[in-house]
Sequence to fold (323 residues):
Amino acid sequence: MPDHHVTDVRSEFSFINWIRTRTPAYPGVQIGIGDDAGLFRFGEAGECLITTDMLMDGVDFWLHELEPSVVGRKALAVSLSDIAAMAGRPLAAVIAVALPKDGGRQLAERIHAGVSALAAEFQVAVIGGDTNSWDGPLVICSTVLGSPTARGPVRRNGAQAGDWIMVTGDLGGSILGKHLAFRPRVLEAFELHKAVDLHAMIDISDGLAADLHHLLDESGVGATIRAANLPISEAALRIDDLRSPVEHALGDGEDFELLFTVSPEDGGRLCAHPPCDVRLSHIGEITADPSCTLVEIDGHSVPLAPQGWVHSLGDDSARKSPE
Fold:
């Protein structure tokens, strides 16, 4: 991924909140702006989860370094991860691409190969899309439609004081390859949702600390995270820079693991009898106090800021930026 820049106040999430305050209620909208996916009721036809993601060459990947099928796979995987974060079943996808004029047709076919392979793996129907060409870099947008399970979608706003905070998999170092090859936790979310009462959930796309703050803000609670309990990836341990492995686990982003909260009783059951093969880690607790605290490995407690990656909405083109 490309160079990172310091974000300004016109960040992606401040803009989302701006839109949210100006969006009126509409019949059929069960879940609107503020979660990983929206939920719309189509009358007697039932409810549909809807999510969309846009990826850009020079922001989310470097096309000149990659086989285009990898880009296609990532574009769909990011949206499947959003459906997983709602504990839903992905059913259909629509893909739109803005292709560079040079070699656009061949590029499109190779992108489609990546999309279709992942779609087949998760039994998702690719039902349409749009193509265009221009003088700029590749832009690809995926929209996924899904259905909630009988237990309903898991939102970001249900965390309760005393909940255990848990994550799937390992965190940090995604830049070394995971951000291109991660497996969306669709099946894992389904098994977790079936096994216990998930109070709140989000996928870790912007970074553990940043996405934790999104969940805390929606739930109106705080958290204590213990650095010693973080499941740090081997990639984060290998990175040789000025940041510690803990800092990488907290802020690298694009891990696409699930961050969720459950009662202590359910958390204990998950640790004792995991319903899925992926690693589950208990990393902290939800607090009634709205502050967010990190207990460092040496035992000292410090405020945990929403460090991670956001898309700046400044005057220049979109770019991925640290908070």
Residues 34-151 form a domain with the 60s Ribosomal Protein L30; Chain: A; fold (CATH 3.30.1330.10). The chain has two domains: 34-151, 164-311. The radius of gyration is 19 Å.
